[in-house]
Fold:
Amino acid sequence: MVRARYVVVGGVLLGSAAMGLLVGDRNGPLRDAGAHATQAGKAEASSPDLIAEGQRIFRFDTFGDEQLWTDKLRMHEVVEKNVDPTTALGVGLKVDSEVLPPGILQKVDLKDPATTVALLKLNAVVGLKATVDANNHITRLGVTCALCHSTVDDSVMPGIGRRLDGWPNRTLDVGKIIALSPALPAEKKAVYNSWGPGKYDPRFNIDGKNTPLVLPPAYGLSKVKNETYTAEAPISYWNAYVAVTQMGGQGNFKDPRLGIDITHSPDLVTSKLPALRAYQHSLPTPRPKAGSFDAAASTRGKAIFGRNCMSCHTGADGTDNNGGNKLHAPDETGMDGAYAARTVNKAYRTTPLRGLAHHPPYFHDGSAATLADVVAHYNEVKRLELTASQQKELVEYLKTL
Structure:
């Protein structure tokens, strides 16, 4: 049985595998909201077997969301008929080169949708899971966490290479993919098409408003207390929220603040949350590439950071939210408040600083294209009075995080 009290877009729950976007909570993790998920996330469990199972879930488990992507949105028809590999790469889908037979890309037609079906049979399309029959027709199609929170290293060609789990797919145009569905009315397609690459709105199907957010990284989370931009709750709460309300998975999720009360039988989500969390917590922050920053300038920039930034970006993880759920009103940091206004607490968490050089653009809405833009923003809003040289040195230090 499913009981849900919220706005449903186009008659169905719509979404992607955006594992870890944002909503808010003034009081931190709730005891009664997604309590099953919060309990699943309490104990750190990191045995090799559990992590391996979590990797499988992260990459390949749809939580039964084919009921949305196949039965309601009919995306299996769209992919089979209209999405050739060139088109797929063009909307940011990625291909795992490590499962491809040697030389296969030189032998197939990358303009033929049948090639996409063949890649799906190999489990090579990152974040998509398909059942293909003996006649090479897609009978079931679903999405996984990896759709939005994995990319590839482009070692074969742009969009094709080895998987990089936990890296946000900033070229993925989730909205454009959803808008291909023949089941959606034109006005909804217009909203989805407006999001652009690397962005997703995890509440559009809840409140009908539209303020898309940048897909965040899912690596370096092991010591981050609250994983989302607005610090609603620990990671297992948010994994459950996304799996059930966004991906369309068959699981249980309850949050009275959002008016959501969804129950499925069988529940295909809750029992998988501990392993999923263990795998996500095993994903390390990528280190800066050799030669990608000026070492002497970064040393000077570190001192500038200490004087001007560490009141909020505290501790090893670079956030004051770990020490007591501290949040900041949008006008305090010069952020656009439109998304925060849609959340319970109306405020944003100080984002942990991890792998910054690897995932532009910045801020919750992607409004800062580069680290230089980030520094310039705070130099103005906080009246830091940094010289142009000091700003450049601070940028060099941020590249090392």
Q: What stands out?
A: The chain has a mean pLDDT of 88. The chain is about 30% helix and 10% strand.
